[in-house]
């Protein structure tokens, strides 16, 4: 029986999936219209029927990584919902660490990305935060999740790595830093993330409670 050589037609989603595969294996700097075309077995010019340029691919990568976040379930409180969202974002970023620079430097642009922004703002507004407070909360929370994930999971080349030799420092001049030598050996970066997340949520709750109380006075 003769096998069909019919190629799957190009689409925006197929292009973005191919681009994500390139990024996952080769890094963000490898992305170009030509490289994505090679991955798909087509000329780069064919891509322009579905994506306008490289920037559109980068915006799409932002989108499809967020699309891997599990669907939000109804939470008992805004704190639980925000905590779940932060953890879910961290998980997909850890799954695609080469995309971290996108989340550190680019805003959500496509409707499929902005829908996550809309949902978070709606959650915060219903909780009682003002529009400005909701924006600040979202921005700071995302910055914490992305920044902490960059610090812990951003890929590095072996020749770029540098590890501090704390144990070689003077104990007299750096007594507290010397204490870290033993602590770091058993330090859990995920517990550190949870520590920071809980501290942020506690601070936000306290701020909201104070503002609501001041309104009643």
Automatic annotation (TrEMBL):
<keyword id="KW-0805">Transcription regulation</keyword>
<dbReference type="InterPro" id="IPR001647">
    <property type="entry name" value="HTH_TetR"/>
</dbReference>
<protein>
    <submittedName>
        <fullName>TetR family transcriptional regulator</fullName>
    </submittedName>
</protein>
<dbReference type="InterPro" id="IPR036271">
    <property type="entry name" value="Tet_transcr_reg_TetR-rel_C_sf"/>
</dbReference>
<dbReference type="GO" id="GO:0046677">
    <property type="term" value="P:response to antibiotic"/>
</dbReference>
<keyword id="KW-0804">Transcription</keyword>
<dbReference type="Pfam" id="PF00440">
    <property type="entry name" value="TetR_N"/>
</dbReference>
<dbReference type="Pfam" id="PF02909">
    <property type="entry name" value="TetR_C_1"/>
</dbReference>
<dbReference type="InterPro" id="IPR004111">
    <property type="entry name" value="Repressor_TetR_C"/>
</dbReference>
<dbReference type="InterPro" id="IPR009057">
    <property type="entry name" value="Homeodomain-like_sf"/>
</dbReference>
<dbReference type="GO" id="GO:0003700">
    <property type="term" value="F:DNA-binding transcription factor activity"/>
</dbReference>
<dbReference type="InterPro" id="IPR003012">
    <property type="entry name" value="Tet_transcr_reg_TetR"/>
</dbReference>
<feature type="DNA-binding region" description="H-T-H motif">
    <location>
        <begin position="32"/>
        <end position="51"/>
    </location>
</feature>
<dbReference type="GO" id="GO:0000976">
    <property type="term" value="F:transcription cis-regulatory region binding"/>
</dbReference>
<comment type="function">
    <text>TetR is the repressor of the tetracycline resistance element; its N-terminal region forms a helix-turn-helix structure and binds DNA. Binding of tetracycline to TetR reduces the repressor affinity for the tetracycline resistance gene (tetA) promoter operator sites.</text>
</comment>
<dbReference type="InterPro" id="IPR050109">
    <property type="entry name" value="HTH-type_TetR-like_transc_reg"/>
</dbReference>
<keyword id="KW-0238">DNA-binding</keyword>
<feature type="domain" description="HTH tetR-type">
    <location>
        <begin position="9"/>
        <end position="69"/>
    </location>
</feature>
<keyword id="KW-0678">Repressor</keyword>
<dbReference type="GO" id="GO:0045892">
    <property type="term" value="P:negative regulation of DNA-templated transcription"/>
</dbReference>
